[in-house]
Amino acid sequence: MTTPRRRRGRRHQHPTGPPESSPQPIEVERKYCEAVLDEDDKACYFQPLCTVLLPMHGPRLCRRHTRECAESCRLYKDASRRMEALQPRVLEFSRRNKRGGFHLLHEVAEAFRIMDEFIFWADLELRERRGHTRFYAFVGSDPGHEKRMINVDKHMGIARKVQRDLRLRMYELQAEARRSEQREEAGRRGRARQQRWRSASPEEEQRVVRCFAMRVIRPDEEESDSEQEELEEVDDSALEEMMDEEELRADERTEREILEMLQWYSRSESGVSSVVGRTRDRDDCVDMLAYSTRNLDVMAPD
Q1: CA quadruple 183, 189, 193, 195: dihedral positive or negative?
Q2: pLDDT by residue (tens digit) across 274-290?
Q3: What sign results for the dihedral spanned by CA atoms 196, 200, 202, 208?
Q4: Region entry Disordered: which residue ranges (predicted)?
Q5: Cβ neighbours of residue 247 closer than 8 Å, sequence gap 6 or more
Q6: Can you tell me whether residue 32 is helix, strand or coil?
Q7: How many Cα neighbours within 13 Å face the side chain of 288?
Q8: Which long-range contacts (CB under 8 A, 24 or more apart) does 213-220 make?
């Protein structure tokens, strides 16, 4: 008896035609944020540049660095306006100091205060512009910003020289006031001594002493009831008079770029739509930056 032959199974045959290919993801061109990380950032030790990826046709900076760039621009623009508002008085005091025109102590004290305030705002503008150029203009600094920083540094050097001269002049006037007071006091004592010698009765002696018992108040000892006032709002008229066209155009280009980046991020977020479509002129650009910065603070950081 023969056993039946086992039939072989059919081999697996591929379907006719080439195999179907799985869908491939669409590659979108991307670029990195151009901001330089701060020294306080932990990632700065490994990678000095920001590693946030952005669309190729999107803004130059990421959302976080756009907010920081707007805040930096607001700070140095405010310092520029306040410095330029004080610059005419600084130049006037400089010319007056060369002529030796300070003879009163309270005038020297006022000029010294103006110089100190001018140096404060000039130093703040210079530091903020340098930081802005370092962290947010890695590709290349605007020539107008470079020219503005050179001019601010030059005027700050002039103010510091005048302030040193005013300090020496203040010491001289204070020494003259003390010597004058000592001479007057010595004269009063001499006259009182002579009157005592000529006086015949104690009552007349006491009257003479009371007559000359006077206190001389120096100008620098006068009390002032004025309190520290809050900073007043300063417009851009001083900037337009003192800054040349290249410096003004550089600031306008920076403000325009920041405003465009802020509006791009505001359109990309559904919860922030109040910034879109708002038109402002150059005078309100800084207010727009501050307004947009407050709106972007509600977004989650990258």
Answers
A1: positive
A2: 333 344 444 444 454 54
A3: negative
A4: 1-25, 179-200
A5: 144, 145, 147, 148, 151
A6: strand
A7: 22
A8: 214/188, 216/181, 216/184, 218/105, 218/177, 218/181, 219/104, 219/105, 219/106, 219/177, 220/105, 220/106, 220/109, 220/174, 220/177
Domain ranges of the chain: 30-216+245-296
In whole angstroms, give the CA distance from residue 45 to residue 33. 17
> Cα separation of 94 and 159, whole Å?
8
Q: Are 83 and 118 in contact (CB under 8 A)?
A: yes
Q: What is the DSSP letter of 103?
A: -
The burial of 19, by beta-carbon neighbours within 10 Å (0-12 exposed, 13-18 middle, 19 or more buried), is given as exposed
Q: What is the largest CA-CA distance in the chain?
A: 174
Q: How far is CA 113 from CA 106, 107, 117, 176, in A?
A: 11, 10, 6, 21
Give, rounded to a whole angstrom, the gap between the first and last alpha carbons of the chain.
83
- If you compute the radius of gyration of the chain from its CA atoms, what whole number of angstroms results? 37
Q: Contact 135/35 with Cβ under 8 angstroms?
A: yes
What are the per-10-residue average pLDDT scores of the chain (302 residues)?
Answer: 56 54 60 74 58 83 87 90 90 85 84 91 91 75 82 90 87 83 79 72 54 46 47 58 74 83 75 38 48 46 44
Three-class SS state of 21: coil
Residues across the chain? 302
Helix (H, G, I), strand (E, B) or coil at 212: helix
The pLDDT value given to residue 280: 43
DSSP H/E element including 30: strand 30-32
Identify the residue whose tokens are 């709106």.
Answer: 295
Residue matched to tokens 């510091």? 160
Residue closest to 117 by CA, chosen among 150, 149, 84, 75? 84
Decide: helix, strand or coil at residue 84.
Answer: helix
